[in-house]
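Subject: sequence -> structure tokens, single chain

Hey, anyone have a minute? Need the predicted structure for the following. Not urgent.
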Amino acid sequence: MKLFCTTESDRMGTRARLRDLIRQESLQFGSFRLASGGTSHFYLDLRKTTTHPEGAYLTATLILDRLTSDWPDAAGGPSLGADPLAGALAILSHIHNKPLPTFIVRSGAKEHGLRRPVEGHLDSGYRVVLLDDVITRGGSLVRAAEIVRQQGGNIAKVLTVLDREEGGSEILARAGLAHESLFLLSDILSPAELAEPSSDPPRAQTSSDTQTTQRPSDPAALQRDLRR
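Reply:
Had a minute. Here:
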């Protein structure tokens, strides 16, 4: 069985297909109010992709491919964004006979049981990669990093699926956290789509221009946006 992406062509093909799925499953145009109080004419709900069967597989493949040259002891991140990533990585790494333990950082302390701030596999001294689906301002990742360090983890880097290019990477750097992302927002949206529309919003299309998406807004998902 091949290990993740064996050639650059394989890597580029996997990335192109995941980009199409993100546009198909996660991208919406309209008028959206963000948790910061600002507004946006588009919204990306990456969990629609990372919980999609093919999307979960492709995302895990590209993340594990990024980790191959510098394999950590474990990987995980803040709930809920990292939850589907952690599950997919654990399964796919086992299938490839290169098991990677994963963990989830709770958004709040439990009031029962063991009251652990981190669930899964994070032992003191572990060298870990911190994960999330989207980074906007980086607040949830900075908080998760503090918790991981309190538990004795050493963070090698932060790896996200999408960087919205709104200063989150710079905030992580000031917190002493190196950051990489599979995609930048400008990799997913064209310049015309990124620009504020003057009339009707554009429709999301795949790179082959064969599919369009215009989804109704999801109020519950929208309120999660800038918490990452």
